[in-house]
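#struct-help
A.M.: can someone run this one for me? Single chain, 385 residues.
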Amino acid sequence: MAAQRKTSRYVVPIAVAGIAAATIGLVPALAASGDPDLPEITAQQLIEKIAASDTQTLSGTFKISTDLGLPAFDGLLGGLAGGGSGEGSADPSAQLTKLVSGTHTLKIAADGPERQKLTLLDGKEQYSLVHNGDEVWAYDSASNQVFHEKGAEEAGRAPEKELPASPKALADEVLKAAGDTTSITVGGTANVAGRDAYRLVIAPKQQGSTVEAVTIAVDAATGTPLKFTLDSTSGGKPVVDAGFTKVDFARPAASEFDFTVPKGAEVTEGDQLEKDHAGKAPEDLEKALGDFGLGGAGQNGPEVVGEGWTAIATFDTGEAAPKTEDAPKEARGFLDALGDEVSGKFGSGTVFKTKIVNALMTDDGKVYVGAVTPQALVDAANAAH
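D.P.: on it. Structure tokens below:
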């Protein structure tokens, strides 16, 4: 049990990387060249156009490029939780962490909220994730492994292994969160996958956020968001620059969502996977993940300081901060690359950094996390003392 508690403390810096991925979403969005000549439109009209969009069916190909400014950590969360590296597994929670770094090509199909399919292409191999009614299937061709989950909706809950959010879903969340702290403008036009689009630019008015701007390319004909780009104040490549290279709004064939277990494939049921991992991930690990928005939230949840783009979540882990030399071997190099030591009125601690989400963990176990600069975290910790 002591070893489990020690492992759980290292979830804090690792979860910074996870929440960064959650912040950007796994969404299609990459602009093609060309600036079409479209009728002028105000930001309010463009927002209304997005809200009125009712695209239920589509298929297409898109690329997603992600640069969080992180060292490689594929499968690191799974390894710390006792679930292995994710290699040779069809479990979506392990496989989809690949999208957190690098450039990937995917194929997507959707027929309303009941049926979606995503295929991740990786050279000659591919990974497919299919949601059809109350069943979720996943297949990893490299290992010939199948993951299956059934009956989640019948049990009164959504499937645990959901497909990544759509561009519209992410746009809705960004617009819903926008308020007096946000500037929303129309930043010209673009051509995405051969379709004319407007560029909606959303940017913080506040100082101290790591977000430079969020740009959403909106299909001029349908109002469907086709592009999502997230830029950081640190400059360089966008944190996320991904998008449709082909898109078709016709209804995909029903057969697109059929799944047949390949010959010789090993099938793992979702409930069996949970049993296999029982006892390997301590309850405080799950709580820490929840506090970072990665799992079931803690009973009380973190306290939020500030508002808008500079809001900071803070909570007390109740344990002293971890030392790199005591970390599990899977995490040592990652921690060295991710953390900087800082000090202030609060004492001392370590800031774990990405290009978009940063977290300060003080030596007495208090955590401050947000899409803000390291200095903003230090100021928040000082103000609390």
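A.M.: thanks! The chain has two domains: 26-270, 272-383.
D.P.: also worth noting: DSSP finds ten helices and 18 strands in the chain.
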